[in-house]
Amino acid sequence: MAYIMVDIESDGPIPGDYSMISFGAVLVDKTLEKTFYGRLKPISNKFIPEALAVSGHTREETLAFDDPQKVMNEFATWINTQSKDRPIFISDNNGFDWMFVCWYFHHFTGSNPFGFSSQNLGSLYKGLVRDTFKSFKHLRKTRHTHHPVDDARGNAEAFISIIGEYKLKVKL
């Protein structure tokens, strides 16, 4: 199984009404060099300026981004080249990231290569340390910049650290 760490940036709280502006994915392996970056044209006229500002892009910039169907098809192809069997979606905040990625896959391609489930890095760490208030974020090496590839890479670094520290049975 291939773990693929994903991070998204959006211009609002939910897909459909608002848009996924960009996302990054990193194959979790020893190198963390296999990445995907997608920038998507908004699908709605609605956006929350403060939410969009987190991405570092203006509305005008996002209007020139790629067609979401094209990007999601390219992402599905990338996932299939990285995973010899079932890919596993993992993220820092899978409730948010998964919601957008799953919706966009089903809406624009008709299916989701990840299937119907996702993993939450924060929950894994909280369970391992037995404290629901602990954060794994100190284990990141790459600075959290809100560029989704940087953020996915930092989370993948933390995941690898957790795997090693807790001797988890995960093949990378």
UniProtKB/TrEMBL annotation:
InterPro entries: RNaseH-like_sf, RNaseH_sf, Rv2179c-like. It comes from Dinghuibacter silviterrae. Residues 3-159 form the 3'-5' exoribonuclease Rv2179c-like domain. One of its GO terms (molecular function) is nucleic acid binding. This is Uncharacterized protein DUF5051. Coiled coil: none annotated. It comes from the Bacteria. Pfam families: Rv2179c-like.
